[in-house]
Amino acid sequence: MYVRILGTAAGGAFPQWNCVCRNCQSVRVGSFSGRPRSQLQVCVSSDRTSWFLLNASPDLRVQIESNSFLYPQTNNLGRHSPISGVILTSADVDQSLGLLLLRELQPLQIYCTAPIQRILREDNSMFAMLNRVSDQASWNEISADTKFELKSPTGETSGIKCLPVSVSDHYPAYVSAKRVTELSPKDAVIGLILEDGSGKRLGYFPAVGQVDAHLLSHFGDLDVLMFDGTFWSDDELIRLQGSGQTARQMGHLPISGKGGSLDLLSHLKRPRKMFVHINNTNPMLDESNEQYRQVYDAGWEIAEDGCQLEL
Ligand SMILES: [Zn+2]
Hints:
Blueprint: E1 2-7, H1 22-28, E2 41-45, E3 51-54, H2 60-65, E4 83-87, H3 93-96, E5 108-112, H4 114-122, E6 137-141, E7 148-151, E8 157-168, H5 177-181, E9 189-195, E10 201-205, H6 213-219, E11 224-228, H7 236-241, H8 261-264, E12 272-276, H9 290-297, E13 300-302, E14 308-310
Parallel strand pairs: 3-4, 4-5, 5-6, 10-11, 11-12, 12-13
Antiparallel strand pairs: 1-2, 1-14, 2-3, 7-8, 8-9, 9-10
The protein binds zinc ion.
């Protein structure tokens, strides 16, 4: 399986347009020890011809134009894209807005849980742009613990199988309280375990509210784990803004502290462990910081825009 990481930041990217945190300000004046980042976007392929996006970032248009393997093939008349489909892990804006950037009448497979589909298609009418003509988006309902195969828009198998795993009951803040009562909690946020014919497994878990024994048993079988690196500490945004929600209240396990991801996943030796979905406030982004060294000393990596993996 070929894996390309096109973006690694959480919503708002890095720097974020209205943020005056130390990280964002240092990037703007050119004094930051580290790199700017676009919003999280990963894609996978078994043949490097047909690609599947894991979520669809608000930076998708630029990410496609910055990566020639996602360009249309020039021997095709009219329109073409190597992008065969998109798997959504949540209805979060930074994970789903990019679908609207794929609205130019292209056949696509879209895989998501029933509640995510309902939120996007019934409550947000703009997404109807993906279904203006019959030969456009095909929506496929997926659910936790039921494996499915990724298929091309014309139905050919890709050789990649995907197992969704429920990770959080946290629906996005824009979903009304009434609607949330109608939706199944276990389908709010999923992680993905992707496997091709070689038996190698990629775990994609950009938003994890808590880690339980079920999740840990899956992680032990992975070759690569991409995990929620949103916040370093539980009160990161509160300390910066003086008010707001904790990381856990926002559906993200913090990295540091007792019960944080470095602590809970320290025994995991097999998978290559990478943090993705990193918020611009996270001190580990600064390579001169103690937190950066702590992550690498613990055997983790901080994924960077442009990373390429082969499993
Ligand atoms: Zn910032």
